[in-house]
Specification:
Layout (H helix, E strand, L loop, with lengths): L10 H11 L13 E3 L10 E3 L1 H4 L10 H5 L4 H13 L1
Antiparallel strand pairs: 1-2
Length: 88
């Protein structure tokens, strides 16, 4: 869903978002399509694929982050792995 407080993604960003959304969850490997999480609003090329539980669930990124802690995954590691998979 597009936030009304940020600009619409460029064509290149939209293509990258689609690639990331097609990936499995970068934290738990749940099959895609995934939700696309930006570390900061508008940083689409640093975004990562997350299943609903790892993204918005009570133990996900926007919750307690327990799913991330149990798997010992940091946000930077998730971004790195996303880039590795998307570009490799």
């Amino acid at each position: 869903m597009q936030s009304k407080n940020k600009p619409k993604p460029t064509k290149a960003e939209a293509e990258h978002i689609a690639r990331v959304a097609a990936m499995n969850c970068i934290v738990c490997d749940a099959p895609g399509p995934s939700e696309v999480h930006e570390p900061e609003q508008g940083l689409w090329f640093a975004s990562m694929p997350l299943c609903a539980a790892c993204h918005r669930g009570p133990e996900g990124w926007h919750g307690t982050r327990l799913r991330w802690k149990l798997r010992k995954v940091s946000e930077l590691e998730a971004i790195n792995e996303t880039v590795r998979q998307a570009c490799g």
